[in-house]
């Protein structure tokens, strides 16, 4: 049975075809007939895509066309949330709603209690999406055997091998060295420190960090941003951000032959794979030559993973080269854009709130001392930066770089915070939406680091579920969280010690941060800052 509404639409579609399309194509050539058949096929696909499945109609849904128009345009998730999603959430007592996704309609979770159940219980597994769409650029880049999308014992194997690498002391010296390099670069490029293109520099900084700290591989993005390695990487990243292919993977599956620009991006995957496999091979060689000579603290993540791999007693517990390659791709994707955007947003909020910037600077100077020398903070000094950490947490609340987690799927019918979720539904933890949900956070649009002080608003919510999840939570929580937090603390403290800053003259962000479009990762649009040296 289909609903009256859906039935009417179906009848209208059928009558349009019999009245207009069929008589027309009967008078035309076979090519016209084929074109009409393709059009009919697509109309049917669109029809199926637009309709909310009957089994999900008890959950409030966003209006399809308004949502898609926003998602496919340059509009940021802030406008989509405010204008389209939050009005729907007003009719949802537990913060759950429906929105379109590349696999059809999915349940978005934006309430603390449902979030806790979704992320902590084992009833929801990662969606098999990536394995279902091997032709997509996304799947070609990440591979189908990576730590983020796998489930069960195979995921455990990946996590066991990667865990030791992420649970040792963080390479803060390397973060400091690259931050110093970035700060000297400000003066050499563009308009100097009067108008610094912050996201562009931070992208280069975090790419060099992830390359060197994770794999001992130097992209040289800070020194030479136009080199071939950076170009290959950036071409693929730009391709991954295109929302058209995100929502319509069928274009890559069936029509890549007719899309020369997209095909050219796909072809660059060969260069990217060459980079990945040469990283693994070189690392193996170096390990062989250095046997036992390197100190643990000096080792990068890949070295530690290769060692853990070699130490695994059972062959079945080890990762193959192609599994290692897929994890490498994830570390790049998950560890580069996310941290660079988190830092851009933190610098923006400090520019927009000079008193908070001053308070954070005072804390840093109390810990690191003051002067025109360059100081790299140690790990223990980083842990003393309580207020800077509150600034970072509030930034991650307002602009969590990952808008949502990867999709989950329930293997059996399930009741999530009182809402029935039929077996096989796609479910997403909608981090951004929950962090801006006024029934979860008071004055959610206002930047207030004190929310994260002891006894602050955040602590008072502990009993009601999970209301702050920029890194996810539970067994699948971000493995790189501490790595990223240390990287952020080093950069923010070094910037605070060396400069004061405001928004650049004529900034488009004077009335609030403007977000870029696209799906997945949240980024700022055209963020330039005016820096002033303190000495
Ligand atoms: C501000 C920075 C970062 C943010 C906001 C972030 C966010 C997230 C989120 C939300 C998840 C959970 C995904 C899910 O449940 O589906 C996740 C998982 C993951 N992240 Fe991050 N991440 C960041 C930095 C990093 C870094 C630096 C790395 C590695 C170098 C990394 C590697 C991973 C990996 C491997 C997973 C999958 C873990 C698993 O499933 O076992 N992330 N991240």
From TrEMBL:
<dbReference type="InterPro" id="IPR036396">
    <property type="entry name" value="Cyt_P450_sf"/>
</dbReference>
<keyword id="KW-0349">Heme</keyword>
<feature type="coiled-coil region">
    <location>
        <begin position="280"/>
        <end position="307"/>
    </location>
</feature>
<dbReference type="Pfam" id="PF00067">
    <property type="entry name" value="p450"/>
</dbReference>
<keyword id="KW-0479">Metal-binding</keyword>
<feature type="binding site" description="axial binding residue">
    <location>
        <position position="478"/>
    </location>
    <ligand>
        <name>heme</name>
    </ligand>
</feature>
<keyword id="KW-0560">Oxidoreductase</keyword>
<dbReference type="GO" id="GO:0020037">
    <property type="term" value="F:heme binding"/>
</dbReference>
<comment type="similarity">
    <text>Belongs to the cytochrome P450 family.</text>
</comment>
<dbReference type="GO" id="GO:0004497">
    <property type="term" value="F:monooxygenase activity"/>
</dbReference>
<dbReference type="InterPro" id="IPR002401">
    <property type="entry name" value="Cyt_P450_E_grp-I"/>
</dbReference>
<dbReference type="InterPro" id="IPR001128">
    <property type="entry name" value="Cyt_P450"/>
</dbReference>
<keyword id="KW-0175">Coiled coil</keyword>
<dbReference type="InterPro" id="IPR017972">
    <property type="entry name" value="Cyt_P450_CS"/>
</dbReference>
<dbReference type="GO" id="GO:0016705">
    <property type="term" value="F:oxidoreductase activity, acting on paired donors, with incorporation or reduction of molecular oxygen"/>
</dbReference>
<dbReference type="GO" id="GO:0005506">
    <property type="term" value="F:iron ion binding"/>
</dbReference>
<keyword id="KW-0503">Monooxygenase</keyword>
<dbReference type="InterPro" id="IPR050196">
    <property type="entry name" value="Cytochrome_P450_Monoox"/>
</dbReference>
<keyword id="KW-0408">Iron</keyword>
<protein>
    <recommendedName>
        <fullName>Cytochrome P450</fullName>
    </recommendedName>
</protein>
């Amino acid at each position: 049975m289909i609903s009256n509404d859906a039935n009417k639409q179906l009848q209208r579609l059928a009558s349009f075809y019999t009245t207009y399309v069929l008589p027309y194509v009967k008078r035309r050539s076979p090519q016209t007939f084929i074109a009409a058949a393709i059009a009919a096929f697509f109309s049917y696909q669109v029809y199926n895509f637009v309709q909310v499945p009957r089994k999900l109609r008890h959950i409030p849904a966003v209006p399809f066309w308004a949502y898609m128009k926003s998602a496919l345009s340059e509009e940021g998730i802030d406008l989509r949330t405010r204008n389209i999603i939050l009005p729907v959430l007003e009719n949802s007592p537990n913060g759950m709603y429906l929105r379109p996704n590349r696999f059809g309609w999915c349940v978005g979770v934006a309430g603390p209690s449902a979030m806790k159940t979704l992320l902590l219980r084992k009833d929801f597994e990662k969606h098999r999406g990536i394995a279902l769409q091997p032709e997509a650029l996304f799947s070609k880049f990440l591979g189908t055997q990576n730590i983020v999308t796998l489930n069960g014992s195979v995921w455990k194997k990946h996590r066991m091998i990667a865990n030791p690498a992420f649970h040792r002391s963080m390479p803060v010296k390397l973060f400091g060295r690259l931050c110093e390099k970035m700060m000297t670069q400000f003066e050499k490029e563009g308009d100097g420190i009067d108008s610094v293109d912050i996201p562009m520099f931070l992208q280069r900084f975090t790419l060099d960090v992830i390359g060197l700290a994770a794999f001992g591989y130097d992209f040289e993005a800070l020194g030479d941003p136009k080199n071939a390695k950076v170009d290959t990487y950036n071409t693929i990243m730009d391709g991954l951000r295109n929302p058209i292919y995100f929502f319509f993977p069928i274009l890559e599956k069936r029509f890549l032959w007719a899309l020369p620009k997209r095909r050219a991006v796909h072809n660059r995957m060969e260069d990217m794979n060459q980079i990945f496999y040469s990283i693994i091979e070189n690392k193996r060689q170096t390990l062989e030559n250095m046997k036992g000579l390197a100190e643990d603290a000096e080792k990068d993540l890949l070295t530690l993973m290769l060692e853990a791999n070699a130490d695994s007693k059972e062959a079945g517990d080890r990762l193959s080269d192609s599994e290692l390659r897929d994890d490498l791709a994830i570390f790049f994707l998950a560890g580069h854009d996310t941290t660079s955007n988190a830092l851009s947003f933190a610098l923006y909020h400090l520019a927009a709130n000079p008193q908070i910037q001053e308070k954070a600077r005072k804390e840093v100077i109390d810990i690191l001392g003051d002067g025109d020398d360059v100081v790299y903070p140690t790990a223990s000094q980083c842990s003393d930066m309580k207020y800077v950490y509150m600034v970072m947490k509030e930034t991650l609340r307002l602009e969590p770089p990952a808008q949502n987690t990867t999709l989950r799927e329930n293997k059996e019918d399930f009741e999530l915070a009182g809402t029935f979720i039929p077996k096989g539904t796609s479910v997403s933890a909608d981090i951004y939406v929950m962090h801006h949900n006024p029934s979860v956070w008071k004055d959610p649009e206002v930047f207030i680091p004190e929310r994260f002080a002891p006894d602050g608003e955040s602590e008072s919510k502990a009993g009601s579920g999970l209301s702050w999840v920029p890194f996810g939570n539970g067994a699948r929580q971000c493995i790189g969280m501490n790595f990223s937090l240390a990287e952020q603390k080093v950069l923010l403290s070094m910037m605070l010690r060396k400069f004061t800053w405001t928004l650049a003259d004529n900034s488009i962000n004077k009335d609030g941060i403007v977000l870029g479009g696209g799906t997945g990762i949240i980024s700022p649009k055209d963020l330039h800052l005016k820096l002033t040296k303190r000495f």
